[in-house]
User: What shape does this take?
Amino acid sequence: MPKIRSYCATGDFFCQNNPGDGNFAIHNSYGKTTTTIAANWIRYMISDFN
Assistant: This one.
């Protein structure tokens, strides 16, 4: 099981290493859904994964 996960959306200039793109809309669109997915994975890794 990988210990690193990436939750970057396509076109997110922070993830794509393209600081010349000033559009923050994609980066600011993650919201609660992605945060919940990441939190569930962290809980799994520290409690359920053997």
Summary: DSSP finds one helix and no strands in the chain. The chain has one domain: 8-50. The CA atoms of residues 22 and 39 lie 28 Å apart.
